[in-house]
Specification:
Helix content: 40-55%
Radius of gyration: 33 Å
């Protein structure tokens, strides 16, 4: 993308604003011009220049020499703030009275054109101002303060205004407020303000940002921008940073805007026009946008019979394209089924549009085009797969036709041809034609061309219909249909959790054949690279906000290049965005099975265990940093990262040999998470499972791990009980019950190891009674009953029945045991 700033008129940006509003991808940052001149408690809200003059006047006392006064007069805003905020120069009560008089109890009259800004459903508003005009005059009443930890959910529950400088209400209420004016306050805020700055950085990098009421000639606004601790020019290629200004910028002003990554300057004749344009575009956004060709028109259709197992398997495992250019035929394998989206597209053919079908690299896009070619029979259909090329002359000839359908893989077209199709969208409609183009989700160039044409007003959004093709079959119908066909050609059936790429790799392993993606290996040079893969294996998708929180920008950029098509970058759908996280970009794992298999192979080498431990430490340290002092947020963010079952799953090993690794990971995380009861419980489960593994080889070591597991479960249980006592949170009862079940299971294992001595048996009966009386543990018992592990509660009770007459336990223990047997074994 060019670094030149675009200088635009209001009409040039109108269509883009409509699109941004529709996509919920425009975030405002308002400056001092937004509220200056409004009436306050005992004065008028000043602009930056007026506030600077006030500080200079207060500093012009006899305490300073003439030379010092001259230095004050010419000082920049940052230095002036440092002088002004020094109690020896200006008394605190003077500063406080000025702020209260001019920034407190500010309201914006409804007749003020600026108030129309509040009629727009912004996800939230960033403000560089400290006054209370926004919360007093609009529904954006929830104030988010700097240097304060916040819950992301607040942005869902309330309409929020984010005050980057601080809040006048806070200033007049508390002796130590959270304002950020001086250099020292800015420096201290970089650590305390990490969650808010991460949110700001994510928005600034990936959203379309609108600066309104901000002037880079205004030193208040300039100081805030310059203090943000990130590269202002770092941005997603598909996002804009727009500044609304009055008049035309000078060369020097353009240079200033360029420093802060501004991409578009929109010039207005008056301030009122800025707010009129926003109101207008918001309202609009709420409304519902030859003979040489015979080769592509007369394509033979062939079907591979189910009896030809070899050819069908080749198509499946090698992911073969269906269109054979050599003989001009589309071959449909026996397992081919019609996708639901195909029916939707066919129903939309009457609308005569440009149809864009987005999907990951392995999602069946080419199969979809082939199916549409076979299905649409009432008009001419031309099919171009990704290995074809079409001349500009041929394309122009096609668009002159009437009542035809063009099926095109985007790889067939060059950039100019794709632009040409968009430019002729209305002509396509008038000629009753339809063009259906397959596009990869991570094709940022194509996304950019579409947005560019919208911005140029060459097309409107209604000229295009977009679809998203899932890389998993729909469970209700598609999955059932294909699973009826696969066994006939000796291929394994789909699991509803596996996507198409998963199934390719799974299938080739099952029938011991090599496919085109089977040899892709992970390569690890740093702990951060490994941390990224671990996070993807756990989450299967990461949003741009996650990448910022975990500081993995560089690692993700490299992963996209090396691991394509397994890892892809795509635009998030509107339904995935809300005010708590407006991330426009997400990174998806197209084959969880592949990554877990590769991580398992990597972990099989014990020399790699240290690096895996370092990767986990990095992940948890980042969670602790972006969670701040919010223990609930930290536990929630860590929970899936430290679950034993998930660790066991992502380091996939058909030989079950990675338990030693998981023990090591929990050991290196102990210092970071020793106060997290979830972590202690999961570590106890790990030690329990590791003791199974050691039982036959090293019974003494196995018992040692059982004792350690019991200690961990007891400490975890105590922590949960203490928290429940102070919070009365019923959800903690569920956590407590699961911990008690783990503790009872551990004690069953100790009984086995100690040959069921009396004290162990009595203690275990008590623990089992406590665990099984909870309504939350029924599923755990049923699961263990099915597994029939040696340490299970079910096996313990069976042992007690078999050896009932020889048990040397108290009468009270017998009563408890009888109750358990009658309830859980005789039903």
């Amino acid at each position: 993308m060019s670094s030149d700033i675009k200088i635009l008129k209001p009409e040039d940006i109108k269509q883009n604003l409509i699109s941004f509003f529709k996509n919920n991808s425009l975030v405002p940052i308002v400056g001092s011009g937004f509220t200056c001149g409004l009436n306050a408690f005992n004065g008028i809200v000043p602009n930056g220049y007026e506030y600077k003059q006030h500080m200079i006047n207060e500093l012009m006392t006899e305490d300073f020499s003439e030379q010092e006064k001259e230095e004050i007069t010419v000082a920049n805003f940052s230095t002036l703030c440092d002088f002004y905020e020094d109690d020896e120069n200006v008394p605190p009560e003077v500063r406080r009275n000025y702020l209260k008089s001019n920034f407190y109890k500010v309201t914006m009259p409804q007749e003020d054109i600026r108030s129309s800004f509040f009629n727009i459903k912004w996800p939230y508003i960033y403000t560089l101002n400290i006054d209370d005009a926004i919360e007093n005059s609009s529904s954006f009443k929830k104030v988010i303060l700097p240097n304060q930890e916040f819950n992301d959910e607040i942005f869902l529950d309330e309409k929020c205004v984010i005050k980057l400088h601080g809040d006048i209400g806070d200033i007049v209420t508390y002796k130590k407020s959270g304002k950020i004016f001086t250099s020292k306050e800015y420096a201290l805020s970089l650590d305390k303000n990490a969650p808010l700055l991460n949110k700001l950085r994510n928005d600034y990098k990936t959203q379309n940002i609108l600066f309104i009421g901000c002037s880079l000639d205004d030193e208040i606004d300039l100081k805030t921008l310059s203090a943000w601790p990130f590269d202002h020019k770092e941005k997603d290629t598909l996002s804009c940073r727009i500044a609304f200004i009055k008049g035309y910028p000078s060369k020097l002003q353009k240079s200033k805007y360029k420093i802060y990554g501004i991409t578009d300057i929109v010039c207005f004749d008056s301030y009122d026009m800025m707010y009129s344009l926003l109101t207008e575009t918001w309202s609009e956004a709420q409304k519902i946008q030859t003979s040489e060709l015979d080769l592509y028109n007369h394509i033979k259709i062939e079907n591979i019979p189910g009896s030809n197992i070899q050819e069908n398997q080749n198509y499946f495992l090698w992911n073969k394209v269906l269109y054979n250019l050599k003989n001009g035929a589309i071959k449909f394998p026996y397992y081919f089924i019609k996708r639901n989206i195909s029916k939707v597209i066919v129903n939309n053919i009457s609308k005569n549009k440009v149809h864009l079908v987005y999907g990951s690299r392995i999602s069946g896009k080419s199969y979809l085009l082939a199916d549409l070619y076979k299905t649409i029979r009432d008009r001419e259909v031309f099919y171009f797969d990704g290995r074809s090329r079409i001349t500009q002359k041929a394309l122009e000839k096609l668009l002159q036709k009437t009542n035809v359908v063009l099926l095109i893989d985007v790889g067939t077209l060059d950039r100019n041809q794709f632009e040409y199709i968009l430019q002729n969208a209305r002509c396509i409609n008038e000629n009753e034609n339809n063009i259906i183009v397959n596009v990869n989700n991570n094709d940022s160039d194509t996304f950019g061309i579409v947005k560019w044409k919208l911005k140029q007003h060459i097309i409107v959004s209604s000229d295009i219909i977009t679809y998203n093709l899932d890389n998993k079959f729909q469970k209700e119908d598609e999955l059932q249909e294909i699973n009826k066909l696969l066994p006939i050609i000796n291929l394994p059936q789909y699991n509803e959790k596996r996507n198409m790429l998963d199934q390719l790799i799974y299938g080739e392993q099952i029938i011991q054949k090599k496919g085109k993606y089977s040899n892709k290996k992970i390569k690890i040079e740093t702990a951060k690279e490994l941390a990224l893969l671990i996070l993807l294996a756990i989450k299967e998708k990461l949003y741009s906000s996650d990448i910022i929180n975990y500081s993995l920008d560089f690692e993700m950029a490299m992963a996209l290049k090396y691991y394509d098509p397994f890892i892809e970058r795509i635009e998030a759908n509107n339904y995935e965005k809300d005010a708590s996280d407006l991330s426009r970009i997400k990174y998806i794992l197209n084959s969880p099975y592949w990554l877990k298999r590769e991580l398992g192979n990597y972990a099989r080498n014990e020399e790699n265990h240290y690096q895996i431990g370092e990767a986990y430490k990095y992940i948890i340290k980042q969670v602790i940093e972006f969670s701040g002092h919010d223990e609930y947020k930290r536990r929630r963010a860590c929970r899936n990262l430290i679950l034993f079952d998930i660790m066991n799953e992502i380091f996939l090993d058909k030989y079950h040999g990675n338990l030693k690794l998981i023990v090591y990971v929990y050991t290196v995380l102990q210092e970071l998470l020793a106060n997290d009861f979830h972590f202690l419980h999961q570590k106890a489960k790990c030690y329990l499972n590791y003791s199974y593994f050691l039982n036959e080889k090293n019974p003494e070591k196995s018992l040692d791990y059982l004792q350690k597991a019991l200690e961990l479960s007891i400490i975890s249980k105590t922590m949960i009980e203490n928290m429940y006592e102070s919070t009365s949170n019923e959800r903690l009862q569920i956590t407590l019950a699961h911990t008690e079940y783990t503790q009872a299971t551990i004690m069953c294992g100790i009984c086995v190891s100690n040959n069921y001595n009396t004290i162990d048996v009595e203690n275990t009966i008590n623990a089992i009674e406590l665990a099984l009386l909870s309504p939350y543990n029924g599923e755990d018992y049923q699961r263990d009953y099915t597994k029939q592990t040696s340490y299970s509660i079910h096996n313990f009770l069976n042992y007690c029945i078999v050896h009932y007459d020889t048990l040397s336990i108290s009468q009270e223990s017998f009563q408890r045991l009888n109750g358990l047997i009658n309830r859980f074994l005789k039903r």
